[in-house]
Amino acid sequence: MHRAEARSVAERILDGIAREPFDSLVAHYLTPQRVGAIGPSGASFEVELTAHWDDYACQTLRLTACVDDGGLIASLAPVSVDLVVPRP
Questions:
Q1: How many independent structural domains does the chain possess?
Q2: Phi and psi for 3 in degrees, rounded to 5?
Q3: CA quadruple 24, 65, 58, 31: dihedral positive or negative?
Q4: For every residue of 24-78, which 3-state class applies, written as one string?
Q5: What pTM, to 2 d.p., does this model score?
Q6: What is the mean predicted confidence (pLDDT) over 65-69?
């Protein structure tokens, strides 16, 4: 797996998700979601998207994208990128 490409896929997905309304993020991503994605080279990736509260007051959400190419070794050590989104 090309880790730099997997990281760019994760960053692209998180950038798009972060534009969604905060309440929508909470509703959709507190339960893990799995999606497929295609990298710039045409390689296929599997992406798991999760969210959890990053503070006790539930005012900040941490979104995480874990990316691998579906192979055994890559699935044991996926590329993970996270993004902190504060409640507006």
A1: 1
A2: -65, -35
A3: positive
A4: HHHHHHCCCEEEEEECCCCCEEEEEEEEEECCCCCCEEEEEEEEECCCHHHHHCC
A5: 0.89
A6: 95
